[in-house]
Design goal:
Number of strands: 15
Family: Belongs to the ETF alpha-subunit/FixB family.
CATH topology of the largest domain: Rossmann fold
Structural class: alpha/beta
Number of helices: 9
InterPro entries: DHS-like_NAD/FAD-binding_dom, ETF_a/b_N, ETF_a/FixB, ETF_asu_C, Rossmann-like_a/b/a_fold
Distance between the termini: 61 Å
Organism: Enterococcus larvae
Oligomer: single chain
CATH superfamily of the largest domain: HUPs
Protein name: Electron transfer flavoprotein subunit alpha/FixB family protein
Strand content: 25-35%
Strand order of the largest sheet: 5-9-4-1-2-3-10
Order of helices and strands: EHHEEHEHEEEEEEEHEHEHEHEH
CATH architecture of the largest domain: 3-Layer(aba) Sandwich
Length: about 300
């Protein structure tokens, strides 16, 4: 029997449910029991788990990684999980290492694949800035891993879980106070886009000029890591191992070389168009259509043609 606990992020419920596929792969040939852990889920619909552990804590006004670490520790002490899986959101990246330290186990962050042979489980993640993949043998219990949204997808999540009400003991009140809130801009999340126009280091003009092309395609603008490091674009639209993982129907790569770090952010992309002056760019070998030429000029002419 392999028991897996998955932390449900109330801002990313669907992505959290997808982590069931991670548990499926970790279990290998062992029988699997999946537990979801939700804090103040309210009216959010959560399916697919065998059991849903619910902690309703009205006093917890905001996400506090310290309080949540205490809750996860208490839940683990009661149920003894073989694995604890966390979504690698900004909040998840604060929780996962705290829980690993508390339970005195290792943490494999941002995994992209899982290999199981008998009782040996290896978690695969990019290493050395995405230039190679590391296969990490996990021999401590529980196995702790964090996973980018949109990397794994569960095939079916219709099962109604058994609800388990959990009341933590001697839980300290949150010390975080919300001073102010602001509405997030209405720009489309690149993870939801069906068409993405993405610029890399070989795109020499302003990234904002791609917005019209993206609008015509009912898509979104994205960038590779070099443009974020050069402060030419915000990290929120970065594709790659240190950015976001995307699965669009169409991905137009403009001046993107195609390092492993970037390619790790592309999952189940149906069609790739690569535009680059470098014929040997790795991205060209992933693309269905390759255009050898200036990426900015191509984007301008394609926009003009589609506008007509």
């Amino acid at each position: 029997m392999f028991k897996a606990l998955i932390l449900i992020d109330d801002d990313f419920v669907h992505d959290s449910i997808d982590l069931i596929e991670v548990a499926n792969r970790l279990a290998g040939e062992d029988e699997l029991l999946t537990y979801g852990l939700g804090i103040n889920l309210a009216d959010k619909e959560v399916k697919g788990f065998d059991s849903l552990i619910c902690a309703d804590l009205p006093f917890l006004q905001s996400k506090d990684s310290r309080v949540l670490t205490d809750i996860i520790q208490q839940v683990h002490e009661e149920f003894s999980f073989d694995s604890i899986i966390v979504l690698a959101t900004d909040f998840g990246r604060m929780v996962a290492p705290r829980v690993a330290m508390r339970l005195k186990v290792g943490l494999t962050a941002d995994i992209t694949d899982i290999e199981v042979e008998g009782q040996e489980r290896r978690l695969v993640r990019p290493a050395f800035s995405g230039n190679m993949l590391a296969s990490i043998i996990c021999d401590s219990t529980p196995i702790m891993a964090s996973v980018h949204p949109n990397v794994f997808h569960v095939k079916e999540a219709a099962k109604e879980p058994e609800r388990i009400d959990f009341l933590p003991v001697e839980l300290k009140a949150s010390s975080i106070e919300v001073l102010s809130t602001s509405e997030k801009g209405g720009t489309q999340d690149i993870r939801e886009a069906k068409a993405i126009v993405s610029a890399g280091a070989g795109f020499k003009t302003e990234v904002d000029q791609l917005q019209e092309l993206a609008d015509i395609l009912n898509g979104a603008v994205a960038v590779s890591k070099p443009l974020v490091e050069l402060q030419r674009a915000p990290r929120e639209i970065q594709v790659g191992q240190s950015g976001k993982t995307v699965s669009p129907d169409l991905y137009i790569a403009l001046g993107i070389y195609g390092s492993m770090q970037h390619v790790e952010g592309l999952k189940n992309v149906e069609n790739i168009i690569s535009v680059n002056i470098d014929e040997g760019a790795p991205m060209n070998y992933l693309a269905e259509l390759v255009v050898i030429g200036d990426a900015a000029e191509f984007a301008e002419k394609l926009t003009e043609r589609l506008r007509k």
